[in-house]
TrEMBL record:
Cysteine disulfide links: C41-C120, C74-C79, C126-C324, C205-C232
Protein name from the UniProt record: Peroxidase
The species this protein was found in: Rhamnella rubrinervis
Active site: H72
Enzyme Commission (EC) number: 1.11.1.7
């Protein structure tokens, strides 16, 4: 057999080995898929949905927390539940950083995890619980039901030092906001839709007073200013005090497109809300979402899906935590 034929056979053998290796790797790590737990824990999503429903029935503000969790976890490098980890002697928790100000109800994620663990010990990740609780929380608030893939695994370390690099602050320029979200594949209409999450919940006076004191921001609707001053009477509010303004006084417990009508009427609480309504890149989408809730829901669903699939750990990467607030090696 000639040398050329031998070379060709060797090449075929190498290709076959490479293909078998690739197929084996894909079989071991299918990545994110719909209904990932259908064989290993078929009741997982039903258990999570029922826990979200029960918790929402008892504590309405849990749904706001579920929604905020997915932003703060998935936007910071990977959707791997690093947000949920407590501080250790070696690392600070993301929960304790300024960007996480006002976040709470993490103990209820543990309640969901415990319920899932009773059904299927060591199978369902905290990262998937975080994402699915957000999905079900959005639906509980009257928002769209968003089919989301599962199969994430949990990270082992906090990313507290990276928060400011990935999460835009409420006072950032619109260029920074668009750039940060654009880096994970969310376009301008998607960013406008994601900020529609400000339709629900409330904002602490700490985040608002710079628009009220020492002088009122002239961009604010004067009628709304009166209410804001009533709710935030202190120029330097106590961060621990219960001093809040509802994001949407009309439908505060409903995820809807009323937010966009409010910000077009200069009733946005935070600077980022105001910028969204006036920036030439975002204003056309704000107007469109103010007119059509269907369009808002479509873009919101698309953006949440992209966010939920940001650089997840899958296959054998990471771990399945026993408790969501502690990595297994420290358990």
């Amino acid at each position: 057999m000639g040398s050329r034929a031998l070379f060709f056979l060797a090449l075929l053998s190498f290709s076959a080995v490479s293909l078998r290796s690739a197929f084996a790797e894909n079989e071991a790590d299918p990545g994110l898929v719909m209904n990932f737990y259908k064989d290993t824990c078929p009741q997982a999503e039903d258990v999570i949905r029922e826990q979200v429903r029960l918790l929402y029935k008892r504590h309405k503000n849990t749904a706001f927390s579920w929604l905020r969790n997915i932003f703060h976890d998935c936007a910071v490098e990977s959707c791997d539940a690093s947000l949920l980890l407590d501080s250790t002697r070696r690392s600070l928790s993301e929960k304790e950083m300024d960007r996480s100000f006002g976040m709470r109800n993490f103990r209820y994620i543990e309640s969901i995890k415990e319920a899932v663990e009773r059904e299927c010990p060591g199978v369902v990740s905290c990262a998937d619980i975080l994402v699915l609780s957000a999905r079900d929380g959005i639906a509980a608030l009257g928002g769209p039901y968003i089919p989301l893939k599962t199969g994430r695994r949990d990270g082992r370390k906090s990313r507290a030092e990276l928060l400011e690099q990935y999460l835009p602050d409420h006072n950032e320029s619109m260029s920074v906001v668009l750039e940060r979200f654009g880096a994970i594949g969310i376009d301008t209409s998607g960013v406008v839709a994601l900020l529609g999450a400000h339709s629900v919940g409330r904002t602490h006076c700490v985040k608002l007073v710079h628009r009220l004191y020492p002088e009122v921001d002239p961009a604010l609707n004067p009628q709304h200013v009166e209410h804001m001053l009533y709710k935030c009477p202190d120029q330097i509010p106590d961060p621990k005090a219960v001093q809040y303004v509802r994001n949407d006084r009309g439908t505060p417990m409903v995820l809807d497109n009323n937010y966009y009508r409010n910000i077009l009427d200069n009733k946005g609480l935070m600077l980022v809300d105001h910028q969204l309504a006036v920036d030439k890149r975002t204003k056309p989408y704000v107007k469109k979402m103010a007119k059509s809730q269907d369009y808002f829901f479509k873009e919101f669903s698309r953006a949440i899906t992209i966010l939920s699939e940001n650089n997840p750990l899958t296959g054998t990467k990471g771990e399945i935590r026993k408790q969501c607030n502690v990595a297994n090696r420290l358990h």
